[in-house]
Amino acid sequence: MPSYDLGDRVAIVTGGSSGIGRGIALRLAEAGATTVIADVRREPHRGGHFQTDVTTPTDELVSTEFGARSSYVETDTSDPDAVDRLVEHTVDEYGGIDVLVNNAGILIPGTSQEVARSEYERMIAVNLNGYFYTTSAAVPHLRDADHGRIVNVSSVNAYYGGGGAGYAASKAGIVNMTRDFAVEVADDGVTANTVLPGVIKTQLQDVGGEAAIERRREETPLPRLGEPRDVGEAVAFFASDAAAWITGAELVVDGGYVAGGH
Fold first, then answer.
1. What is the distance between the alpha carbons of residues 204 and 45, in angstroms, rounded to a whole number?
2. Most exposed of 98, 217, 223, 260 (fewest Cβ within 10 Å)?
3. What integer is the mean pLDDT of 94-117?
4. Comparing C-alpha atoms, which of 246, 74, 78 is closest to residue 151?
5. What is the overall mean pLDDT for the chain?
6. Strand, coil or helix: what is 13?
């Protein structure tokens, strides 16, 4: 396991209470980072197949498990005012922002005939607009940091359809939005990169049930499904000095799912 040293970094992780975001926050804390968990609820979601027994809030687990500083801020990232409060809290409490991890997202499955327009708009609002709002609010502080990093979590669905038009479109949009951020902030030494997870063992896999999980497992060339920590490792890399000259890039973390033709 790479031993990245993030002891002098302050990181915001949106959607950090559950699932992939929880795994990211724990990995950053293990590397020493101060973490601010931004989510609509503090209590972690429990899945029917994976993460069935999670109960301790992420910020509390960070403190007890790693002795790192952490706090929770109730945040709906589709609300610009809520995002501004999140950034203000982080700067007031910890003195700045070094790493912004945009991870908050929702999935409302269904075709164009099944998903209501309001549901489609909600997915775009959280999965894409929210990334813009948080980045817009955080960039002035990232520019002041010695190691400013933006890490956006998308999905392998950015490369093909699946999950519904709103989900696929938002995940593809994240990739190109990140490239634009990378160009925008490069002069200030800030990097912006995207992590694209494949099938990860979170509550999101409850969609479709056991048969769908088994099919996804069979379609993943490496002999297991991903863990939230696998995504956390990729984010920790992008947040570290090891990735100082990498920007506008995408890192697929999927056990070979895309390489296998999916």
1. 10
2. 223
3. 96
4. 246
5. 94
6. strand
Q: Which domain holds residue 216?
A: 10-253
Residue 69 in domain: yes
Q: Is residue 262 part of a domain?
A: no
Identify whether the C-beta of residue 98 lies closer than 8 Å to the C-beta of residue 10.
yes
Tell me the one-letter amino acid at 190: V
* CATH number of the domain where residue 221 is located: 3.40.50.720
Sequence-separated contacts (24+) of 176-180 with Cβ below 8 Å = 177/128, 177/131, 177/132, 177/152, 178/150, 178/152, 178/154, 178/248, 178/250, 179/248
**Total domains present in the chain:** 1
Alpha carbons 36 and 248: distance in angstroms, whole number: 24
Q: Give the β-pairing of 99-102 and 191-197.
A: unpaired
Model's pTM, two decimal places? 0.95
SS3 state at 251? strand
Spell 74-106 as b/e; 16+ CB within 10 A means b.
ebbbbbbebbebbbebbbeebeebbbbbbbbbb
Q: What is the DSSP string of 36-80?
A: EEEES-SSPP--SSSSTT--S-HHHHHHHHH---EEEEE--TT-H
* Residue 3: Cβ within 10 Å count: 8
Domain-located, residue 145: yes
pLDDT tens-digit map of 168-178? 999 999 999 99
Residues marked active site are found at: 167
**14-26 per-position pLDDT tens digit:** 999 999 999 999 9
Cβ burial, residue 152 (10 Å; 0-12/13-18/19+): buried
The C-alpha torsion from 116 through 117 and 123 to 125, rounded to 10°, is -150
Instruction: Work out the percent of the chain whose per-residue pLDDT is above 90.
Output: 83
Residue 3, pLDDT score:
74
